[in-house]
Amino acid sequence: AIPYLQAYIHSGQEKYRKSVFANLIKACNHAHNKSAGLQAAKMAVASYADDFNLVSSAVNFCIDNEDDVNLQYFVAKALELKPEDETLLNIQGKLYEDAREYEKSLQIYTRLLQAHPNALDVAKHMAIGYYNLGVMSYTERYREMATLKVVGFKDRKIAALLVGQNLWLSAVGILIGLPFGMGVLAYMLKTMASEY
């Protein structure tokens, strides 16, 4: 069926072109013909960028063939058509995680968590993202300390710098946080006093 469908696409006829593209992508998927299917998916999306069903067929083709590089492209196209589609957002977040773009994945999962505050899977992915950001931050700090050692700083001096930084950050946090917290507490007591 693939050669006949390809011949129809190349004939230039428009009458059934969309459905032929969709069937060609499916046929290539079933025949495990990745290159022809990918070519058909790209042509279909280029020809009918506003047809969500064709873009969705391309997304499914890439998922079935484990093609994350092209999947990223097609998911981005699909999200242009349906920016709030939760399935697409989940796929996008997972692709960002796999590419180690944790800040982008956290943005996606934050949107999903706002829509579903009790979603355990979304919370799990957010925890993974924050953990990985922390590990990356630690790795960067470790490199900074290694650079200081190379320049000639002793371990005690580096430790003193780190403790000093932490003390200053804590002091600033307390100075800002205490008045803010007291203000919030006063507001809560004032608005909820009548209930108790």
Task: Tag the structure with descriptive keywords.
about 200 residues, mainly alpha, 9 helices, about 85% helix
Describe the structure.
Helix content is 83%, strand content 0%. It contains nine helices and no strands. The longest helix has 38 residues. The model has no long low-confidence stretch (mean pLDDT 89).
Which radius of gyration do the C-alpha atoms yield? Answer: 26 Å
Distance between the first and last residues' Cα: 75 Å
* Strand element count: 0
Largest sheet, strands/sense/barrel: none
> How confident overall, as mean pLDDT?
89
Strand content: under 5%
Oligomeric state of the chains present here: single chain
Share of helix, binned: over 70%
- Model regions low in confidence, pLDDT < 50 over at least 5 residues: none
Shape: elongated
Helical/strand content category: mainly alpha
- Total number of helices: 9
In sequence order, what are the helices and strands, one letter per element? Answer: HHHHHHHHH
